[in-house]
UniProtKB/TrEMBL annotation:
<keyword id="KW-0233">DNA recombination</keyword>
<dbReference type="GO" id="GO:0006310">
    <property type="term" value="P:DNA recombination"/>
</dbReference>
<keyword id="KW-1133">Transmembrane helix</keyword>
<keyword id="KW-0175">Coiled coil</keyword>
<keyword id="KW-0472">Membrane</keyword>
<feature type="transmembrane region" description="Helical">
    <location>
        <begin position="229"/>
        <end position="248"/>
    </location>
</feature>
<comment type="similarity">
    <text>Belongs to the RmuC family.</text>
</comment>
<comment type="function">
    <text>Involved in DNA recombination.</text>
</comment>
<dbReference type="InterPro" id="IPR003798">
    <property type="entry name" value="DNA_recombination_RmuC"/>
</dbReference>
<keyword id="KW-0812">Transmembrane</keyword>
<dbReference type="Pfam" id="PF02646">
    <property type="entry name" value="RmuC"/>
</dbReference>
<feature type="transmembrane region" description="Helical">
    <location>
        <begin position="6"/>
        <end position="24"/>
    </location>
</feature>
<protein>
    <recommendedName>
        <fullName>DNA recombination protein RmuC</fullName>
    </recommendedName>
</protein>
Length: 319
């Protein structure tokens, strides 16, 4: 039952009470009301009072509930205002290119640390000419330069623009920013003479900025491929690192397999050598046995001759 219904019910009860009161007053002008009618009137008035009390209690309960709801809404509005202030603070924080760069470098550091031991990558790697890249991955094929770029200023102006001409203007400025980053990375960090492989990675810490860059109609992917620079976002960088890690593990398995094969081949050679030595030893043993048999035969023959000689001497002596 809503508030309007309760109000209508209250008015209805009051109207009925007024009608009864007027009838009663009209009757009393002519004659005295007997005790039974008075009792009925009192009962009706008491019933109306109880209904009015219930209506009043219902209204009070609804007002209390509405007050609680309004309080909760005010609290939520306060929380939203605090979030708004925090978001505004974050936006002010990200207006500084240096601070944006620091955020990107920290995220880059954490992701590299999740996949590789520190021996497989270096942070703030310095080349001989003095230029410093945010990170390099160390692979058997060479160093993979990784640099974090956060082209936010003209991107934010573009998405906030309400007029199409302004949006197009800031889009062109945004494209110029991205191409400048690509050119800088290609020129400064792709240095095969210093051990890098023939491409570099441009890490973009924002998914929304990344998807704007790789739109087909902007043709930035073709431009970056010509410069041998690969765009990655936090999500795609995760898969890039996983592929590199699996490649390293595959090479380790291949090296371990080669070591096992080389060891087995060495064992085979050693087995052949041992078999040859065993055959030689067996031949020597056979020859030794034959010589021993001959010596034993000769010894038996000499012993027999000595025994016969002893018997001849004894017979001659007896005669």
């Amino acid at each position: 039952m809503n508030t309007i219904t309760l109000l209508i019910l209250g008015l209805f009860i009051l109207t009925n009470g007024a009608v009864i009161f007027l009838l009663f007053k009209r009757q009393t002008g002519n004659k005295q009301v007997d005790g039974q009618n008075m009792q009925m009137l009192n009962q009706n008035i008491q019933g109306m009072q109880e209904r009015l009390d219930k209506v009043s209690q219902g209204l009070n309960d609804r007002l209390d509930s509405a007050a609680r709801v309004i309080g909760a809404v005010n609290k939520e509005l306060g929380s939203l205002q605090e979030i708004g202030r925090n978001m505004q603070g974050l936006q002010e924080f990200l207006k500084s290119p240096k601070l944006r760069g620091n955020v990107g470098e920290q995220v880059l550091k954490q992701m590299l640390g999740q996949f590789f031991p520190t021996a497989f990558y270096s942070l703030q790697y310095k080349f001989r000419a003095g230029q410093i890249v945010d990170a390099v991955l160390k692979t058997e094929d060479g160093l993979i330069p990784i640099d974090s770029k956060f082209p936010m200023e003209n991107y934010q102006k573009m998405i906030r623009a309400e007029i199409e001409t302004e949006r197009v203007k800031f889009l062109h400025e945004f494209l110029k920013d991205v191409k400048k980053h690509v050119n800088d990375i290609a020129k400064k960090y792709i240095l095969p003479a210093e051990g890098t492989i023939n491409f570099a990675v441009m890490y973009i810490p924002s998914e929304s900025v990344y998807y704007e860059i790789i739109r087909d109609d902007l043709d930035l992917n073709r431009y970056s491929m010509e410069k041998k620079v690969l765009f990655v976002s936090p999500n795609s960088f995760f898969y890039f690192l996983r592929v590199i890690m699996m490649g390293m593990q595959g090479k380790k398995m291949a090296e371990a397999t080669r070591e096992i094969i080389d060891t087995v081949r060495g064992l085979q050679k050693d087995t052949h050598k041992f078999a040859d030595s065993l055959n030689v030893l067996n031949t020597h043993i056979t020859h030794t046995k034959s010589a021993f048999d001959r010596v034993a035969t000769d010894y038996a023959s000499i012993t027999g001759k000595i025994e016969r000689l002893d018997r001849v001497d004894e017979d001659n002596l007896l005669e």
